[in-house]
Every structure is written in C-alpha cells, then in structure tokens.
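Box 3.1 A note on notation
Throughout this textbook, protein chains are presented in two layers. The first layer is the amino acid sequence; the second is a token string describing backbone geometry. Keep the layers aligned when reading.
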Amino acid sequence: MHKLGVIGKLIGFWIIVMFLPLYLLLLTAYEATKFDEKDIISKGIPLYWRVLMLFFLFAIMACVAPFVYILALPVLLTYGIIIYARSIWAFLSKI
C-alpha cells in the first residue's frame, strides 16, 4: 500500500510539473492574440511576469524532461519575442 501512495504522488507531481508550463504557455498565447495596442501597457505587466515564469519553468523542465520540452521551447521563445516586441512598439508609439 505504501508503494501505491508513492506512485500516486509521483504521478501527481509529474502531471503538475509537465502540464503547468504548457497551460501557462497556451494561456499566454491566447492573451497575446487578444492584445489591443491601447491596452498593452495596462494589461502587459501580468503577461510579462507570466512569460518570465514560463522561461524559468522551461529552464527547470530542460533539466528534468528535456525530451518533452526541447520541442516546446521554440514556441515559447517565439511568443516571448512577439509579446515583448509588440509592447515595446506600443510604448514607443505613445511617446
């Protein structure tokens, strides 16, 4: 019975560890598509933190499960670059 509890905890841990970054990535991508140029500065700050957290989580996952996250890393980098470029452009256009 003790082994089943340990296996259950490991499975729960892997579900959280493997799917939380992917969920955050999909949420970030969804919010990036809803961005309006006028709202980028007011709504952009939580998105920046989410992208930074994704980079941190993907760095951890690259150590834990590189075979899974090596494929998703280019997607993360692309969305991060798009989000930062759009927000910088909106900020510079308001000056």
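Helices lie at 2-33, 40-64, 66-94. The chain has a mean pLDDT of 65.
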